[in-house]
């Protein structure tokens, strides 16, 4: 147990790491904010004070004497389940090179502002540098307690001067001298810091729902801000827009905080907008929610686009199960690399970008072409749920699965959106069993596996037309779309290569302007992710968009949402046909066991295509539905006294007959 927890302390899962910088105009309060972070995370036991010259990060004599930051200092601490590596960067213009040097290695940043000053000259400079390095950011409006502090003014200046979209995730309770707490716009809670007698270190605060009776004006302000936030995020994120327009279009009030939080995260990572929080570091208010926001909204190193930097701790030459450590290796050899944190199977490692570029030049190719071919990952055909023995071990299980996935790209892990359960998708029974076993042996978690289920597909039986209109005023814009479309069966039989292909889309002459085609195609693709009958992906359909009328102010997101809803209607009308995976089966069996194997195959809805002779053996080439292959290896072994071997691979998807489809529906509903 100890070793396991130690491992997660020394080596936290990459999804729980935040490498962030803290940047600002001089004197906005970076160092004070950092000190508070260190204190609340338990890293320091006393509150350092810039004005007294005893902070942790300003350790140069000159820094302590002048109360300013010159060199970037890095500190590491843990906040809740997250490892935060934080770099305090200098705010003074003279040290911008130092800032630039830090930004190159950061994944996210907190920009600290003096709420009485808004955006200042140096903030603009660092903001541009962060833009250049494509770094997602959070804004912290500090000094809310100060004379002249104004939340509205500071937000307005962020909007105007930084030309960015602020997402108001908090509202201050009180301003200047009366500043005492925050409203969390996402969760609709109020957070009030308690001034306990004696120690006023801000460790104790109360979080509870903000009710209308508490403060009718503030409550109204919260409602307005939250609705505006939801509309703003919906405009920037398609997935969220669909949720808002669908389930919650009547009342944003019911929209769960976690859905909003997830969408804010996506928008932040895409750098389409910037979350804004506020507080007073000096008065010890607002820093804990800021830390929560760092964990919630800034990216893990693995979520940053582009090439990743890896450090390998050792290089080993394998001799079966023994290894010899070697200092270096030249091209053309095979070795084991130890300590890679982000690389997954299929990646190409180079010693440096420059080396890769030079090698590409020598080979007369573009640097991108130097990549080794990735691995082709077949579509998983089986899935099942996996549960840890207790909720406390869910985190360990998630870590284990993410490690295993890096090694094995054919393992896919999803979260069931309805039940919240972890779902494993794999290539077969044995594949999933081995994963189960490895999680037990290598990670010490004895998980519970749900029944193995087959990844079916859905397609349409008939041709159907539908029309739909979406008319909604969000913010100041009226979004109005009307679409008319038709779906038809594409190909009755789908080969494995076609399994993952999108629907074939046609636009009636003049129906859809070129600039809207992408939005329409997105809407169609989204509607095919979950079919209307059992929620399996829809494939093998043709779609014709017959007409599209769009009001000039309408966002592309709304166009996609309307098309998607219309598609769902048309799919339902057209009638759904379930498709099942059909496998190519090759059995090698001795002559005397051939008839037993064939008789068994007939019972499994198998169809024999060919029987070849290979020395003393016979090779049966057949096709059999995946659903009939459960436990096949055991049965075949006993039928043939262990003499037969077989291989299975996905051939295509084929339609279930109506009797089988009815039985499947009953089974599925019985399970629910
Ligand atoms: N009123 C008020 N003053 C603050 C607050 N936070 C910091 N200060 C004061 O502002 C001054 C600057 O704070 P620092 O934390 O050194 O600011 P900095 O951004 O790190 O400054 P440089 O390192 O020089 O860039 C100090 O006198 C702090 O006491 C706050 O929340 N409210």
Protein architecture, described:
This protein has 672 residues and is α+β, with helices and mostly antiparallel strands. The chain has 18 helices and 29 strands. Strands 2-3-1-4-5-11-6 form a 7-stranded mixed β-sheet, with helices on both faces. Strands 20, 23, 26, 27, 28 and 29 form a 6-stranded antiparallel β-sheet that branches. Strands 15, 16, 17, 18 and 19 form a 5-stranded antiparallel β-sheet that branches. β2 (73-79) and β3 form a beta hairpin. It binds guanosine-5'-triphosphate (GTP). One of its GO terms (molecular function) is GTPase activity. One of its GO terms (biological process) is mitochondrial translation. Keywords: GTP-binding, Mitochondrion, Nucleotide-binding, Protein biosynthesis. This is Elongation factor G2. InterPro entries: EFG_II, EFG_III, EFG_III/V, EFG_V, EFG_V-like, G_TR_CS, P-loop_NTPase, Ribosomal_Su5_D2-typ_SF.
Give the structure's gist in a few sentences.
The chain is an alpha+beta fold and 672 residues long. Helices cover 32% and strands 27% of the residues.
Describe the main β-sheet briefly: 7 strands, mixed
| Class based on secondary structure composition and strand pairing | alpha+beta
Average residue-wise pLDDT: 83
Number of helices: 18
Helix content: 25-40%
Count of DSSP strands: 29
Roughly what fraction of the amino acids lie in strands?
25-35%
Low-pLDDT stretches: 1-5, 62-72
Radius of gyration: 30 Å
The separation of the N and C termini measures 37 Å
- Ligands (ions, cofactors included): guanosine-5'-triphosphate
The coarse overall form would be: globular
Strand order of the main beta sheet, please? 2-3-1-4-5-11-6
């Amino acid at each position: 147990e100890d070793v396991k927890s130690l491992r997660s302390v020394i080596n936290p899962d990459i999804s729980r790491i935040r490498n962030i910088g803290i940047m600002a105009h001089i004197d906005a309060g970076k160092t004070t904010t950092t000190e508070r972070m260190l204190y609340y995370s338990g890293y320091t036991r006393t509150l350092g004070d810039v004005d007294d010259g005893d902070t942790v990060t300003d350790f140069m004599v000159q820094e302590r004497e002048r109360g300013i930051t010159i060199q970037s200092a890095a500190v590491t601490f843990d906040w809740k389940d997250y490892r935060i590596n934080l770099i305090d960067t200098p705010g003074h213009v003279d040290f911008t090179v130092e800032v630039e040097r830090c930004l190159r290695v950061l994944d996210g940043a907190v920009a600290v502002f003096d709420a009485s000053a808004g955006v200042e000259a140096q903030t603009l400079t660092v903001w541009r540098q962060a833009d250049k390095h494509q770094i997602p950011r959070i804004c912290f409006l500090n000094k809310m307690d100060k004379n002249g502090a104004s939340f509205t003014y500071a937000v307005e200046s962020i909007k105007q001067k930084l030309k960015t979209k602020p997402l108001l995730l908090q509202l201050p309770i009180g301003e200047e001298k009366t500043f005492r707490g925050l409203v969390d716009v996402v969760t609709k809670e109020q957070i009030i810091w308690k001034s306990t007698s004696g120690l006023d270190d801000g460790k104790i605060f109360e979080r509870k729902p903000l009710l209308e009776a508490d403060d009718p004006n503030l409550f109204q302000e919260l409602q307005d801000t939250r609705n505006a936030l939801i509309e703003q995020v919906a405009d920037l994120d398609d997935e969220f827009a669909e949720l808002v327009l669908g389930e919650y279009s009547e009342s944003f009030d019911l929209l769960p905080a976690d859905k909003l939080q997830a969408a804010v995260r996506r928008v932040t990572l895409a750098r389409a907008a910037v979350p804004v929080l506020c507080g007073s570091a000096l008065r010890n208010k607002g820093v804990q929610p800021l830390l929560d926001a760092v964990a919630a909204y800034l990216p893990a190193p693995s979520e940053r686009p582009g090439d990743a930097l890896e450090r390998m701790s050792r290089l080993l030459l394998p001799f079966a199960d023994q290894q010899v450590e070697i200092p270096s290796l030249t091209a053309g050899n095979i070795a084991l690399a130890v300590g890679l944190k982000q690389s997954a199977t299929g990646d190409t490692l180079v010693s440096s970008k420059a080396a890769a570029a030079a090698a590409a030049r020598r080979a007369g190719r573009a640097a991108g072409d130097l990549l080794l071919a990735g691995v082709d990952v077949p579509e998983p055909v089986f899935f099942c749920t996996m549960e840890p023995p207790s909720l406390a071990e869910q985190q360990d299980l998630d870590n284990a699965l993410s490690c295993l996935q890096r090694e094995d790209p054919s393992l896919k892990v999803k979260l069931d959106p309805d039940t919240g359960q972890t779902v494993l998708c794999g290539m077969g029974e044995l594949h999933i069993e081995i994963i189960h076993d490895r999680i037990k042996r290598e990670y010490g978690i004895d998980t519970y596996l749900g029944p193995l289920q087959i990844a079916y597909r859905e397609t349409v039986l008939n041709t159907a037309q539908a029309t739909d209109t979406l008319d909604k005023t969000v913010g100041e814009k009226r979004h109005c779309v009307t679409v008319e479309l038709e779906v038809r069966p594409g190909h009755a039989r789908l080969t494995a290569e076609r399994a993952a292909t999108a629907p074939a889309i046609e636009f009636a002459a003049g129906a859809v302007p070129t600039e809207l085609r992408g939005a329409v195609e997105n809407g169609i693709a989204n509607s095919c992710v979950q079919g209307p009958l059992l929620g399996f992906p829809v494939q093998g359909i043709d779609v014709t968009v017959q007409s599209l009328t769009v009001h000039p102010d309408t966002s592309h997101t709304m166009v996609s949402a309307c098309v998607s809803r219309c598609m769902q209607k048309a799919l339902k009308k057209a009638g759904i046909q379930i498709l099942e995976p059909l496998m190519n089966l090759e059995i090698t069996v001795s002559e005397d066991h051939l008839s037993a194997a064939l008789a068994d195959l007939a019972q499994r809805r198998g169809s024999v295509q060919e029987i070849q002779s290979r020395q003393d053996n016979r090779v049966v080439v057949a096709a059999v539905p995946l659903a009939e292959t459960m436990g096949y290896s055991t049965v075949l072994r006993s039928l043939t006294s262990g003499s037969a071997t077989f291989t299975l691979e996905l051939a295509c998807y084929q339609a279930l007959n109506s009797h089988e489809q009815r039985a499947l529906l009953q089974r599925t509903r019985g399970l629910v």
